[in-house]
Each structure stands twice: as structure tokens, then as C-alpha cells.
Amino acid sequence: MDERVKDVQVWLNKTYGNVSGFKKAPEDGRTGWDTIYSLREGLQYELGVSPLAEGFGDMTRSALSSVIGSLTPGYSGNIIKLVKGAFWCKGISPVDFNSKFNTNLSNAIEELQNDAGIEADGQLSVNLMAALFDMSAFVLIPGRGVSGVREMQQYLNSRYSDELGILPCDGIYQRATNTALIFALQKVIGVAGANGNYGPGTIAATPTVQEGASGDIVRIIQYGLYVNGFYDGSFDGKFDGTVADSIIKFRKFMNLPPFTSTADLTVIKGLLTSNGNTNRDSIALDTSTQVSTQDLANFKRYGFSVMGRYLTGSVGVGSSKRDKDLTAAEIKRIEDSGMSVFPIYEDGGYEIDYFNKKQGYKDGIIAAVKASELGFPKGTTIYFAVDFDIQDGDIEGTVEPYMNGIITALKYTDFEPGIYGTRNVCLHGEKLGMKNSFVADMSYGWSGNLGFVMPKNWAFDQFVEYSIGGTPIDQVAASGRDKGTKSFSPRKQETISPSDTLKEIIKSLKQDIQIDLSGEEVTILETPTVEVTLSASDEFAGSGDSPIFTINNGKLNSVDITNWLKKKYNMENNSLSVAVDELQKFTVSAGITNGDISISVSQTNGTDYKLSISCNVYKEDNKLVTNTFSIEFGITMKPTDFFHSLPNGDAIKITLGVVLIALIVALVTLITGGAGSSIAGEVAEVVSTLI
């Protein structure tokens, strides 16, 4: 908490709290939008603007412009106190918090002007007030801001702030920065009515710039190369060999032939917009239309050889609704044409509520089954769509789990995970392990494309839409990472639902157990010292405090489990390997072909110890489980007084050993349907070993 910020908040509420429309600031000493809104509303009240509003719009600007000339050293009034309050909230000290325009305030104004890259004259202006009464930062944001971007933002402010307003100078390349860079280009090349939009007039006026040139146009090219990750030289406006090499690298990475150092429309627009030169050639397209032989002939005549098609679903509503799914008959036509095709999956994905891990897993299985039926070969990438402009702060909790679900689902199939979406979404996917990206660069106004570099794993880049022979298509650039499929070999991939998977596992236990997918625990073995429970869920279980131990082709990675138990609990006895062997017998008996196991140990009721063994099942008897499913054994040990007399570490170690023995008993009992071994004898053996 900043005490000076709290002073500002308290004063705002005391001064304007009874004014109609004023929203009180939180008195927590932290600057946030609610405090900024209160400052703006206080300013509007002093300027006579009504009704009060949270924004800093035209009415506020107009009212301010009529008095800004009088807000000079010597002036005294609440407007100046609001200005000083805004400085405290901005993190710039005006030293005091009173209503006098004094030297302290002039110094604070100069500090902000220096940070913003504009002339530091110590005078207030409408644009400076708009930047001050805002959450925009004018210093480098730790961990996010980049010094070179901040230098560019300050340069743009120094040239164009009178027309564009004062940009943030936080080192983060964002929409405002991108717009200002295009605006700067328009001013340099003489586009009338410069507005920051790369439209037809700007396209027509974009020059071709060669090595040896100099001036502001070269500086803009340098900035564009820098924010795209291809230049780290100085922003001196000189087209030297370093700039030339950077342009060649950019052309090659984006597959923009010819691979020369010439900065033409294709390069310059490609640096400043996500869709680039929409008149450039490419070999790929995608379409939601089930294509005919004539369509394929038309596509080839236009020079296309690779096509993206949807695995499932339909488009349109009502009378205009039509199927978009790729069919076997269509594949035969594609094979005959000599074109290749890559698969896209999109049956939803237009809004944020769609995305979670469970949906990702479900979509992954559906797509893999359909791709197998159509005959796509092993190693084919399936591109899963995130078809809207999701904001950066929302990706981690929605789209990332969705992509993790896809990756998990495809792990035991023939196919590789790919992602379709904005540059930002694709960059997140690249980090998570999506093999290839299909970038939705055609939507150049989306926030997820502005200010984000192209992912290194891009395979396809969608940049313009139109029709060929009446069939709507999206033209797509291809990097060569994914050449599509020309030859198909249909095969069947069997599936099983979570509920049927549970039935098969229960059947294998040879016990009359009544259990569902609710996660509710059912006791399957109980003695005075040990209780064993079983539960199942249509969600994946967490990893507990252990790593993930895999079940692959029915075989449990027993070595890893044994080594982990030894390392974590320093246990050296035969019960470990015996317990793991029993786990292996269980997975075989239950028909779990592929899955993973995790283990956690917890203390309950302050005395009892519980060992939880969770198994996420992906394949049951080589059938893909159609959605998330897990089964969990819970073994609770109720220690005797003997255990309580031991040091806590020894008690945990010995209790774990006893619980492992209980696991052996439980699994033997369940698998064989018999009565199991004598728990007392096993407990005595393991205790003597551990002590």
C-alpha cells in the first residue's frame, strides 16, 4: 500500500463523495482503474462536465482545452490538486499534495514528459492530462517491457503525439504502438488523411526501398524488423548491410520470395500488419466447402496445391446450413487431382466458455477417430481452431487447458497436435507442445495478432478471403513444415466411453462393487487398521505429490515408481517392488492399455495416513476413451499407539510401508476375488524391515 495514493483516494471521496454520478475510489492505497475513474470524474466536476463518466472523451477534452492555458505556475485550485493526485497514482512524486501549481509540480510534469519522449517544458497540455489520468505506463514494465520498443514509442511520441495523443512508453508493443507506426509510415510517404490503418491509399503509396537508402522510411523499416524479431541494430535510419540481411531473413522465414534485401510492399506491409501483402502468391488455401472436381481444377489453375479441410461439422444456420466435413468421396477426388490436404477440426470454439481441458480431450479423440477413418497417415498434424480474438489474460485459464487436453488425447493416436488461432494463441501453443501452427493472420485487427511475432512453428498462414468459381476460400501461405497428405489409407479406431470403461474395470475386479463417475468413494476393504476405497470420475485426477508414471501398451513404468518411492521416502525393502508388481497386475487385469498413475500421501484426522493412487485411463483394451476418465484407490492406515511414539519422519515412512502392504492385500483380493493375505503378518514384516 502506498500511503500517498491512499491520501489521494480519501481526499477524492471526501471532496466529491456527495456529487451525483461520482463513484468512490477504494481507499486501499493501490492505483487501479477505479481510482483513475474517480480522478477523471473529479476533474469533470471541476470543469463543469455533466453527467460524470469514467472515460476521458471529447467532452472532457473540450472543457479542458478552454482552461488549460490558465493552468500555469501560480494557479491554485482543485484541478491542480487532482493533477498532483494523478501524479502520485502514476508513481511520479510531485512532493506535496496541495492545490498550488508550484515548482514541485513543474518538475513532476517534466519527468513525465521525459519518460514519454516529448519536449520537457513543464507545461500541462490536454494530451498530457489524458496520459496522466490513465493507467498507461511510461516506464519499462519489468519482465514484459523491452527497451528497444520503448525507444520506438518515445520516438513516435516525439514526432506525432500532437495528432495521435501520447502513447504508453512501457516497452510493450501493442495496438496503439502498431497504429502509430503505420501512421508514421503514412506521414513519411505522404498519404493524405493518415489514420494508422494500412488501407488502399497506403498500399498504393508504399515505396520500394533498397540498400543504401536513408531517412525516416528506413527507420520505420528498422522498427518493423525489430518488433518482428529480425533486427537488433540501431534505429539510425540507414539501410546498411545489417538491415539488408535482416530483410532477407524475414523473407525466408515468412516464405516471401524473392529472397532479396529489397523492402517492397510485401516486406513493409508484412512487417507492420499480420496479413501482409494480400496480393502475394501462395500455394495453399482452406475452405469449408465440400469441393467438387471442378473446384479442384479451378484451384490448381490458380496455382494452389495444398488445401485445408474440416474433419467434421457444418456451417450456416437454417436454410443456409450445409455440411463442411471432409468425406471419403471428396478424398478420392482430391487424390485423383494430385492436390494434398491437411485436416482442421472446428465444432465450436467461437467463444471463451467453450475452452477447457475436458473439451480439448474430447475434441482430440473425435478428430483422431475421424482422421483415421478418412485415412490420414501417421504423423499428420490436426489443427484445432480457436476462432475468436481471445484476450491475452484469458488464454492461460481457458485455451491453454484446452490445448493440454488435445495433446493428452493425441498422445496415444497416430496424429500430432496443431493449433489454429491468432499469433498470440499459436505462440502459447508452441510453448505447450503443439507441433505446428495455422495462424489466423487474415484478422489483422485482432488484438492477438497486433504486436505479436509469428510463431517459429508456423506451417500455414491465412491472409485473405475471396471466391474461386463461386466457392469461397481463404488464401493461405505455407512455410513447408506441413506438406499435407496426398495418399490415404482408411482404418478403424475403436472407442469406448468413460462409463463403459468403468464397467470393464469393475468387471475385472471380480467384486460386486456399485460405483459411478461421481467421484464418491466406495469402501472395498476395511479392517481395524486399514481402509481401502475406490472411486471413479469423468475428470482427470491430479498428479498429487508424485511425477506421472506411464502405462504404455499395458506395461506400467515400475522402475520409475520404485525409484521415486525410494528417493522420496528412503524406503529399502521388498514390499516396494511387490506393491508395484501388484499395481502392474491390476492394470493388465483391468485392461488399461494406456494411461498414467500418480501417487499422493496425506494425513487425515491428524492421525491417519492416506495413500491415494490415481490412474488416468486413455485406452481400455486398445480402445480410445472418448473423454476424460480416472479411477482412484485410497488406502487409509490407522496407526496404533506404537506409531505415535516414533519421530514424525519415521512414522510417515513406516506408515507408507504398511499402506503399501495394504495395497498389495487390496489388489490381490480384488483381482483374485479371494480373501487376501493376513494383514497382521505383512504389517509385522514391513515394520521389522523399516525399523
The CATH architecture assignment of the largest domain turns out to be: Alpha-Beta Barrel
Low-confidence stretches: 668-691
CATH superfamily of the largest domain: Glycosidases
Query: What gyration radius follows from the Cα positions, in whole Å?
Result: 33 Å
Q: How would you sum up the major sheet?
A: 9 strands, mixed
CATH class of the largest domain equals Alpha Beta
Helix content: 40-55%
> In DSSP terms, counting alpha (H) and pi (I) runs of 4 or more, how many helices?
24
Which features would summarize this protein structure in a list?
disordered C terminus; alpha/beta; 9-stranded mixed sheet; 691 residues; TIM Barrel; Muramoyl-pentapeptide Carboxypeptidase, domain 1; 19 strands; 24 helices; 42% helix; 8-stranded mixed β-barrel
Report on the structure:
- The protein has 691 residues and is α/β, with parallel strands linked by helices.
- The protein folds into four domains: 3-135, no CATH class; 175-272, Muramoyl-pentapeptide Carboxypeptidase, domain 1, CATH 1.10.101; 284-493, TIM Barrel, CATH 3.20.20.80; 498-690, no CATH class.
- Helices cover 42% and strands 16% of the residues.
- Strands 11, 12, 13, 14, 15, 16, 17, 18 and 19 form a nine-stranded mixed β-sheet that branches. An eight-stranded mixed beta barrel has the order 1-2-5-6-7-8-9-10, surrounded by four helices. A two-stranded antiparallel sheet has the order 3-4.
- Helix 1 packs across helix 2 (33-47).
- The two termini are 53 Å apart.
- The relative contact order is 0.06.
